[in-house]
């Protein structure tokens, strides 16, 4: 018998199906798992000693924004460092296709704001050789990849391509435009798309466009969404990702149910999150999910279990955009932002009860309440060092100032470089475990990998979930954790032969040391200048992974990249 490529020897196998863990070997050949357990009839070119280690399926990350980054970082780090072997691109309705040549620059500017991806990095790192979705997928197919990926139709790009930006933001589509959008979605699905995605956060979207206006999908009407859902229903394939505002919870969730019924295809809803003290927050969401499932609606809940924090400056921060006053002040070039911050009328607007209430109400997901933010950096200004380590609320109290004035004055004194740190809050392990254990239809997340690069590091959520929920708190079993990190999201998103370890399946595998699994540095990570154009980002690296394998090839060994790129574009969910 021909030799194997890899033997993973003597590990504890957790195969992703909830089968109890067992000790055994895994043999890999030609990109697939050739044998699990027993004795092989031949030897392997490479042996990975997994004694005392966990051998499990690679993780599937369903919510990323690596659409630009995958072009210069084939491994989609941060996620690739943390055991993720498959990602979904084009979330929230945002992406880079279809796009007319004269709209390329504007599409990149959109992503600098709504997902906080550096413009210069996109300008240098992306080499445009597409207009249509089929051309885009062919380009993505040709690009070297260290992870597998599938691609949504970015609905904002689709509407803009058909209607033009101004029309897409201000009116419903005409019947002729809806017909064309159905045609283009069908064309994209024929070429290998996995479905479509939308962010629907209303006119006060927390993730606004480059000019401060809502994103195209934020205000799109129900019928324009249902028009696309009918394409998936007619084809009986694909799925939908929706980030939905819940300001009017019953009405908003009723639309998600209507969408699921119209498409009759899986809906990935985000996000189900837990508060620190109020169990009603996540239990109401779980009850809604279970009731929808009882009606036969194929909805899955993406759990917001990520524990990464925020450290930000007003030069790059965009997550106060749900307040129109703060959004107006922080939109534009750096020089324009500084001018606005010096405008007394704009200062009064951001200090208003309405503006501050909007931020406080949404504080849990945007870095916490401003009063508790810690000043962590003042651009080496000796006269300002006295503020480092103090909260904005403390400084405001000591100096008799409004805390917004404190934040803005420190920003202006440092050329917008003053950094504000979210203090590490308590996380309720019991409530977060309930999101997983309390439903058959939920999985951990949401990483937002590739987005908010200068102030957020959610791509480490897989490592954190295993060490937090499984190892430290012992609230989720190892078998359940790997089912939720791999098999269930793979099923929900239509990945074929991924997410479990079985003979004949593609060999996407992680081998790790649960006792020593970790994240470096903790909480908000560290700054590294590794983006095109010399741009920087925040990162959290992984510790404890002996091997990460994609399609039978090691991409990381002992937490170090091997520089191999065995990843594939999975058209229709399979290679």
Q: Tell me the fraction of residues in β-strands, as a range.
A: 15-25%
Query: What is the name of the CATH topology of the largest domain?
Result: TIM Barrel
Q: Please identify the oligomeric state.
A: single chain
Query: What would CATH call the homologous superfamily of the largest domain?
Result: Metal-dependent hydrolases
Major sheet attributes: 9 strands, mixed
Q: How many independent structural domains?
A: 2
The CATH class of the largest domain is Alpha Beta
Kindly state the mean pLDDT as a whole number? 96
Please mark out the parts with pLDDT under 50 across 5 or more consecutive residues, or reply none.
none
Based on the coordinates given, report the CATH architecture of the largest domain.
Answer: Alpha-Beta Barrel
Number of strands: 25
Taking the alpha carbons of the first and last residues, their distance comes to 26 Å
Describe this structure in words.
By secondary structure, this protein is an alpha/beta fold. The chain is built from 18 helices and 25 strands. The chain has 2 domains: 59-309 and 425-492 and 500-564, Metal-dependent hydrolases (TIM Barrel); 312-421, no CATH class. The strands form 6 sheets. Strands 1, 2, 3, 4, 5, 18, 23, 24 and 25 form a 9-stranded mixed sheet that branches. Strands 9-10-11-12-13-17 form a 6-stranded parallel sheet, with helices on both faces. Helix 4 crosses helix 6 and helix 14 crosses helix 15. It is globular, with a radius of gyration of 23 Å.
């Amino acid at each position: 018998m021909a030799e194997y490529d890899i033997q993973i020897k003597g590990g504890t196998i957790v195969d992703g199906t909830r089968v109890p863990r067992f000790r055994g070997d895994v043999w890999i050949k030609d990109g697939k798992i050739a044998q699990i357990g027993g004795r092989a009839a031949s030897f392997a070119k490479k042996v990975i000693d997994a004694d005392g280690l966990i051998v499990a399926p690679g993780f599937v990350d369903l919510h990323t924004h690596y659409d630009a980054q995958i072009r210069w970082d084939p491994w989609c780090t941060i996620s690739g460092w943390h055991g993720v072997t498959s990602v979904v691109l084009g979330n929230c309705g945002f992406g880079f296709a279809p796009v007319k040549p004269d709209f390329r620059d504007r599409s990149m500017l959109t992503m600098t704001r709504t997902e906080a991806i550096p413009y210069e990095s996109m300008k240098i790192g992306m080499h445009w050789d597409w207009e249509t979705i089929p051309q885009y997928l062919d380009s993505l197919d040709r690009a070297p990849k260290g992870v597998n990926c599938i691609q949504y139709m970015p609905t904002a790009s689709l509407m803009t391509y058909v209607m033009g930006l101004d029309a897409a933001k201000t009116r419903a589509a005409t019947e002729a435009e809806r017909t064309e959008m159905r045609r283009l979605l069908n064309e994209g699905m024929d070429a290998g798309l996995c479905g479509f995605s939308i962010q629907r956060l209303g006119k006060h979207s927390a993730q606004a466009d480059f000019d401060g206006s809502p994103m195209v999908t934020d205000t799109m009407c129900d019928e324009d969404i249902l028009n696309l859902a009918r394409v998936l229903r007619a084809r009986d394939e694909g799925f939908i990702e929706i980030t939905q505002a819940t300001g009017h919870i019953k009405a908003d969730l009723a639309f998600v149910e209507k969408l699921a019924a119209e498409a009759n295809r899986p809906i990935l809803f985000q996000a189900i999150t837990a508060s620190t003290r109020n169990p009603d927050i996540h239990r109401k969401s779980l009850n809604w999910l279970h009731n929808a499932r009882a009606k036969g609606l194929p909805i899955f809940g993406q759990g917001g279990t990520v524990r990464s924090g925020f450290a930000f400056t007003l030069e790059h921060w965009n997550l106060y955009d749900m307040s129109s006053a703060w959004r107006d002040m922080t939109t534009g070039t750096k020089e324009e932002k500084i001018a606005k911050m010096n405008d007394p009328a704009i200062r009064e607007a951001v200090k208003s009860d309405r503006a501050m209430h909007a931020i406080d109400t949404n504080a849990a997901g945007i870095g916490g309440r401003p009063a508790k933010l810690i000043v962590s950096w003042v651009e080496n200004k000796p006269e300002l060092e006295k503020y480092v380590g103090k909260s904005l609320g403390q400084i405001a109290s000591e100096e008799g100032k409004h805390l917004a004035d404190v934040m803005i004055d420190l920003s202006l004194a440092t050329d917008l470089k003053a950094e504000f740190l979210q203090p590490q809050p308590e996380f309720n392990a019991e409530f977060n475990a309930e999101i997983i254990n309390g439903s058959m239809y939920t999985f951990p997340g949401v990483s937002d990998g590739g987005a908010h690069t200068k102030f957020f590091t959610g791509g480490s959520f897989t490592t954190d979930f295993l060490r937090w929920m499984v190892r430290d708190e012992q609230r989720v079993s190892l078998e359940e954790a790997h089912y939720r990190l791999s098999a269930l999201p793979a099923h929900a998103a239509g990945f074929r032969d991924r997410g479990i370890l079985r003979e004949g399946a593609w060999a996407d595998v992680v081998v790790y040391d649960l006792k020593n699994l970790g994240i470096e540095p903790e909480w908000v990570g560290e700054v590294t200048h590794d983006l095109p154009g010399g741009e920087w980002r925040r990162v959290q690296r992984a510790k404890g992974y002996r091997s990460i394998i994609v399609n039978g090839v090691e991409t990381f060994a002992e937490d170090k990249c091997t520089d191999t790129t065995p990843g594939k574009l999975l058209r229709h969910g399979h290679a």
